[in-house]
Amino acid sequence: MTDTDIALMAHLMRRAGFGESRRQLEDRVSNGYEATVEELLSPETQTPVDLYDLFRYQPWTWKPGTIQGMGHASWLYRMLNTKAPLQEKMALFWHGVFATGVSKVDHWDEITDLVDMLRENGMGSYREILLEVAKNPAMIYWLDNNENHAHAVNENWGRELLELFSMGVGNYTEDDVRECSRAFTGWTITPKLPRFPMGRFDWFFEYRDEDHDHGEKTFLGQTGDFNGDDIIDIIVQQSATAQFVCRHLYNFFVADEPQVPAWSVTPPRDPEAVNMLANVLVESNYDMRSVLRVLFNSDFFKEARFTRLKSPAEVVISTLRLAGGSEFPAPGLGNLARQTGYMGQDLMNPPSVEGWHTGSEWINSGSLMRRTNFFADLVGEVERPGIEAIISDLKARGDLSPEQLVDGCLDLMGPLDINDDSREELISHATEDGPVQWGKNGLSEKRVGQMLQLIVSLRDYQFA
Amino acid sequence: MTTAQKDPVLVVLQLSGGNDYLNTVIPFTDPLYRDYRPTVAIPEDEVLTISDDLGFHPSMGPVRDMYQKGNVAIIHGVGYENAPRSHFRSMDIWHTCEPDTLGTEGWLGQVIRDIDPNKENVVTGVSFGPSMFRAMALPGVPIATVDDLSNYGLLTGITEQLQRDRILQRYKNLYAQNIGRGAVMEFLGQTGLDALRGADVLSEAPERYSSTVEYSDNTISQKLKGIAQIHLADLGTRIFYSDHGSFDSHSNQLGMHATLWSEVSVAIQDFFDDLREHDAAENVVMFIFSEFGRRTHDNGSGTDHGAAGVTFAIGDRVKGGEYGAYPSTKREDLEQGDLVPSTDFRGVYSTILEDWLGMDAKPIVGGTFEKPKFVEAL
Q1: Contact between B72 and B303 (Cβ < 8 Å)
Q2: Do B111 and B251 reside in the same domain of the chain?
Q3: What is chain B's alpha carbon radius of gyration, rounded to the nearest angstrom?
Q4: Are B198 and B316 contained in the same domain?
Q5: Facing residues of B144 across strands?
Q6: B98 and B136 inside one domain
Q7: What is the domain extent for residue B328?
């Protein structure tokens, strides 16, 4: 297998997953690129994460209530341990689109249920996903559709469905928003059991026909007594919908696009690629798996190396998976779960229904500091299994010159492509301590840890 | 830069989500107010009156006290034409001062650039995040983005001082290499270097602080406390930015709005009390705004997105009172069911920029706009 094969596979696994170790990459290269893509698209072939292990040791992760850090700890655990990383990536993807937040919903279990639904259906039919989202109790409450009545229409859900979840600004009118909202009257939740004294109970979707506006509606040029599912059918007929969804896919898997509010005035950086994906989406009857297959096998994807800035979730999960040693639900899991929030991505609690600003907007002086500190703290712990593996692979190469130390670390951490100036700086740092001779009181192992800390502080390491 | 005269400082408090103008500054004698809002109208006897026909929301006691001392300016009907009523887009417009195209340059980022073009002080602008606000964003302009002031520093996990110093030196070298690396890398490089410098400077602020004021244990009080600590440490910070929310009261507005304004009002009072205790209030003006107001009619539980909103300026140098006219609530004067703005937000920005910060507003706001004269220069 060539370095090129390894580099390409590393790229695929960073994007479709959370990155993999050198040894794992070599196994995958043996299987082949297309076969790996198929495996990623078939999460049902992998042993699922056993949540009962988690619940036995950390019972608060099941029904978190308001326990700090426990809210999305179960999701963190899943992402840490999954053998089907693309499935988790799709859950992250859809959560960023159908953004609901616990700041208002105040019910972690319900948002967890929504994310579970997105995980389960994420690679299936987009139309089905939209319908499930429309009936999801957390989403209904989040966007006030339980306050959307025939005699008093509430436009929150109706607007966001069009603006953020399907077509995007510029493809509908204020009248369409109104008519859409009318069509979803009656899509509500059963009366909630009071929180005291027994705690939070589950919420359930309920359709109340007597609260539904059965009047004629004109939506996107079509007229009829439309109900919510009719609206969804009309939405998926619009080419704008396929474009919007595929631009999101491009932004999440290929390269950073400008922020969503700019999409109505700024074209995609690669309109041909987005068009191509949109056509596949339409022709496959909105099957997400079909689009993903085409995406991961396309040239534009394979060539897009390090064109995405890692989201905080990717920063945390990829580093934990690389360093290893955090798979067990040990004390401190809740604190780990909060790290993405400190970096600006509080999972299951986005700042608004518009989700998070991504790409370079993840970075400011505060978040850059946190990300760097997080990376460096983990890779400096040389007794962690993933770091030990890197060190032992380096040892197998014998004594190392400062150059070989640097190149070896870059190779095993990625492989990472950095520019000459940065590489020179790293070599200069390594040269200060001379060549690496193994077997001297663990000092050489420490040196590797420090070089890794320097590498993860590089700007290049912020990209995937 | 030390002069006998203090430099003007601006503290922006963003109410995120769309604060309901009609229930914040209440036209309680207007019969239409009650017609439109059978569910969320505030009962007349609960309104904190400030004139014959206007009053504050019942939770705004401290703000009314400050108003009666002449320190609060109410600027009515602020907005712009063709409001999109979308959170992101509306907020972008306020942050970048570009109602018609897509802006990327924050108006305060431009201010900070003009105040400190040579970047002598990396904490000229401080954002109390955790994320940075676009209003402060401008490529090349360092902004300290603080979440927890007491724990702010780079690679603090490396405990061996010598080792940490070595790595931080390499970090500086690496982040300074920008030739041929493109805009994003340069942005990262600059951000990293500024983070390093800013952390060193800001770490002094909590150490130097002592006060009799006890701030409440909620996020907005703690943010304003952090701002006070930095201001009182005299580090040269001129622009502070923070937010509170969510004010997006589509449902259950009565309880939600009351709690939010209670938190905000007490926090603002504690903040100014703290500054006054240290004789450091005179050169501070606080500007409060939201991305839009809300619809005149309620939806049975709350209100949906609207257009014209209210802004406030608070401070010792503010000329208290009302500016601009409350937009007409008559049906025929509404647009899409919403209040029509009577004051362009760029006029309000112009006042802040010219009359308070002593800068030329035109290049930042993109034109000349009528300025409500609510503040007196130092």
Answers
A1: no
A2: yes
A3: 21
A4: no
A5: B126
A6: yes
A7: 9-151+213-365
Residue B59 within a domain: yes
Q: Is B370 left (phi over 0), alpha (psi -120 to 50) or beta?
A: beta
| Contact state of A360 with B188 under an 8 Å Cβ cutoff | yes
User: What are B243-298's pLDDT values in tens digits?
Assistant: 998 898 988 899 999 999 999 999 999 999 999 999 999 999 999 999 999 999 99
The answer to whether B318 and B351 are in contact (CB under 8 A) is no
List the single residue in A174, A373, A457 with the smallest CB-CB distance to B156. Answer: A373
- CA B227 to chain A, closest CA, distance in angstroms equals 16
Residue numbers of A between 129 and 188 with CB closer than 8 Å to B: 143-144, 146-147, 149, 152-156, 159, 163, 169, 174
- Give A152 to chain B, closest Cα distance, Å: 6
Instruction: Say how far apart CA A292 and CA A253 lie, in whole Å.
Output: 9
| Same-domain pairing of B18 and B122 | yes
CB atoms near residue A30 (< 10 Å): 12
Does the CB of B184 have a partner CB in chain A at under 8 Å? yes
Same domain, yes or no, for B338 and B197? no
C-alpha A301/C-alpha B14 separation (Å) is 40
Which residue is associated with the tokens 């002069």?
B3
Residues B194 and B244 in one domain: no
- Convert A407-458 into a string of H (helix), E (strand) and C (coil): HHHHHHCCCCCCCHHHHHHHHHHHHCCCCECCCCCCHHHHHHHHHHHHHHHC
Residue B2 lies in a domain: no
| ipTM of the modeled complex | 0.87
Domain contains B373:
no
Side chain identity at residue A75, one-letter code: W
Banded model confidence at residue B5, pLDDT cuts 50, 70, 90: low
Q: What is the pTM of this model?
A: 0.78
Residue B241 contacts A where some CB pair is shorter than 8 Å: no
Record: contact B188-A363, CB cut-off 8 A: yes
Evaluate whether residue B208 is within a structural domain: no
Residues B146 and B178 in one domain: no
- Strands B55-56 and B309-314 turn out to be unpaired
Number of structural domains, chain B? 2
Contacts A152 to B, Cβ<8 Å: 299-300
Query: Count of CB contacts below 8 A, A vs B?
Result: 157
Domain co-membership, B140 together with B175? no
Residues A70, A60: contact at Cβ < 8 Å? yes
Q: Which of B167, B202, B237 is the last residue of a domain?
A: B202
Asked if the C-beta of A363 comes within 8 angstroms of chain B's C-beta atoms, the answer is: yes
Q: What is the mean pLDDT of residues A210-223?
A: 97
The answer to whether the CB of B59 falls within 8 A of the CB of B33 is no
pLDDT tens digits for range B303-344: 998 999 999 999 999 999 999 999 999 999 999 889 999 999
Which of A104, A144, A365 has its CB closest to that of B195? A365
